[in-house]
Design goal:
By secondary structure, the chain is mainly alpha-helical. The chain folds into 2 domains: 391 residues, no CATH class; 125 residues, STAS domain (Transcription Regulator spoIIAA), CATH 3.30.750. It has 23 helices and 7 strands. The chain has a 5-stranded mixed β-sheet, sandwiched between helices. It has a two-stranded antiparallel ribbon with strand order 1-2. One of its GO terms (biological process) is transmembrane transport.
Length: 572
């Protein structure tokens, strides 16, 4: 009992900062330390097989939509996916090519070719390593929710617009334009070249996936739909283009690792693409990890995850793959399939490699219209329709951020959309925080306000004719400095003594400290004694560093202590 009393009266120890090893230890190591059993392996094997079946058609479809050959998508899932699972900071993350990258990868490939794409991917990997080791991954969470919703919806629109040609088997007069409006105009001009066989295959694929998702949700709907479409095209000899007719099939092995052509001029040329890959990869992978955390109750290590993404992108580029990142849909499938840890992701990559080695010839029969149908379903699922509608209804500010991000992504550029959306979201946040601060006069400081506080005081003291007491509540930062400064300028010279209660201020910045310093100088010139009460150690340190100290002001732990100072040493 005595020990319990002593323990209860001991001051709480401050939480220690996590060490480097704690921050960057892969979850695979954590799982092994917990004890990995045969039962765990069995669960991971089943989950890995399930995810591989989903990833097989998606990897090829994303690669083709990105303007490269289908095997590069498989290389990304095999090499990048394995490293992300082995070194990552999430138990359940599944890595590979992501639909969000289609637009960026296609634009980069069209501009600098595949060699330039591989170099940009490698540089993005280096940037991700830097972001992770500098521990900047924590700040990704500050991206406003309307930005992510608008960004994802915009990407879905762009990806779908890029599949219209394959969905209907159209024959364009020239190269397909990148921007949305010219692309739609080119599609309209080619409407007379529609291939009804390709259209039938696409509709059949979408219909099959929708039916299986409704009636047999645990079945691999995409793979079944691709297989059914391939069989029908082969048996009926439909005039629909396939992987074999366009690409000659896919190889039955991985290519040997090799560096892409590297030069300073080339690196400068692809630098904007590499930065865009790194930023989008960081956002996409950490969003995916957050989704997995929400489904499982676990917590990922964000910076460790980004380091794994960095190594994965470097390795993927060496083997001829695309940008690798965490994928939300495949990660969610992994969780639902009962995965125990990262081994499931590693098994998923191994199964994909085995399928490529054994069943590569069968891929030649896959219709491109069927893969386009798969991506059309992916685009539909990407759009958070309910969240989009809710944000439009609930707040004008959030609706503005959402629509600005969405429209800029669709009609201008992905990176511009994120930057503008983030900037608008930040301005909206500053405006809301500035409006939340309040400066209250002494009459509001009645006993009920402080009934549970050690700084409770007699309300009769508030009627002291020589003393005025004001309380600031809320974050005091540059956005609120003008409002608070105006009030302080008005009251700092009204009476002999001025007590400023800062106990309800959770945050002070340098602009706020400068405002307090100005009020203190004005009070001193007017012969007013200025006492700051209830300031936290951090706030007091900020104010003192900005010159808010004796003889300008004195500090007190509470309003009662401030009044005690005045009684002990009244102003002359």
């Amino acid at each position: 009992m005595d020990q319990a009393r002593r323990a209860a009266h001991q001051p709480a120890q401050k939480p220690t900062k996590p060490t480097f090893s704690e921050l960057f230890t892969p979850k695979l190591v954590t799982v092994w330390r917990e004890g990995y059993t045969l039962e765990h392996f069995r669960a991971d094997a089943i989950a890995g097989l399930t995810v591989a079946i989903v990833a097989l058609p998606l990897s090829m479809a994303i690669a083709i939509a990105s303007g490269v050959t289908p095997e590069r998508g498989l290389y990304t899932s095999i090499i990048g996916g394995f490293i992300i699972s082995a070194l990552g900071g999430s138990r359940f993350q599944i890595g590979g090519p992501a639909g969000a990258f289609i637009v960026l990868v296609a634009a980069t490939t069209a501009r600098v070719g595949v060699d330039g794409l591989l170099l940009a991917t490698m540089m993005a990997g280096v940037f991700l390593l830097a972001i992770g080791y500098l521990r900047l991954g924590t700040y990704i969470k500050f991206i406003p929710y309307p930005v992510t919703v608008g960004f994802t919806a915009g990407i879905a629109v762009i990806i779908f617009s890029g599949q219209i040609v394959e969905l209907f088997g159209l024959k364009l007069a020239g190269k397909e334009p990148g921007p949305l409006v010219p692309k739609l105009m080119a599609v309209g001009e080619a409407a007379g070249t529609i291939n009804f066989a390709a259209t039938f295959v696409a509709v059949l694929t979408i219909f099959t996936i929708a039916c299986l998702k409704r009636w047999r949700p645990k079945w691999p709907a995409m793979l079944i739909a691709i297989g059914l479409a391939s069989v029908i095209v082969a048996l009926l000899s439909l005039p629909a283009e396939t992987i074999g007719t366009r690409f000659g099939g896919i190889p039955r092995s991985l290519q040997w690792p090799a560096l892409p052509p590297v030069s300073l001029a080339r690196m400068i040329d692809v630098l904007p693409d590499a930065v865009a890959f790194a930023l989008l990869g960081a956002i996409e992978s950490l969003l995916s990890a957050v989704v997995a955390d929400g489904m499982t109750g676990r917590r990922h290590r964000s910076n460790c995850e980004l380091v794994a993404q960095g190594f994965a992108n470097i390795a993927s580029s060496l083997f001829g793959g695309l940008c690798a990142t965490g994928t939300i849909a495949r990660t969610a499938t992994n969780v639902r399939a009962g995965a125990h840890g990262p081994v499931s992701g590693m098994i998923h990559s191994a199964i994909l490699l085995l399928l490529m080695l054994v069943a590569a010839p069968l891929a030649s029969y896959i219709p491109l219209a069927a893969l386009a149908g798969v991506l059309a379903v992916v685009c539909w699922n990407m759009v958070e329709k309910q969240a989009f509608a809710t944000l439009l209804r609930t707040s004008r500010g959030d609706a503005l951020v959402l629509l600005a991000t969405f429209l800029i992504v669709v009609f201008r550029d992905l990176t511009e959309g994120i930057v503008v959306g983030f900037a608008l979201g930040s301005i909206l946040f500053i405006d809301r925080m500035a409006k939340s601060i309040a400066v209250e006069a002494d009459q509001s400081l009645v006993p009920e306000d402080v009934a549970d506080s050690a700084s409770a005081y007699d309300s009769s003291e508030a009627s002291d004719a020589d003393t005025v007491v004001y309380r600031i509540s809320g974050a005091f930062f540059f956005g609120a400095a003008s409002t608070v400064g105006t009030v302080l300028d008005r009251i700092a010279d009204q009476r002999k003594n001025f007590i400023l209660d800062c106990s309800a201020v959770p945050f002070f910045d340098s602009t706020a400290a400068n405002v307090i310093e100005g009020a203190a100088h004005k009070a001193r010139r007017a012969g007013v004694r200025f006492i700051i009460a209830g300031a936290s150690p951090q706030t007091r340190r900020m104010l003192i560093n900005h010159g808010v100290k004796r003889p300008l002001v004195t500090y007190a732990a509470s309003i009662r202590d401030a009044r005690a100072q005045l009684k002990a040493a009244p102003a002359a």
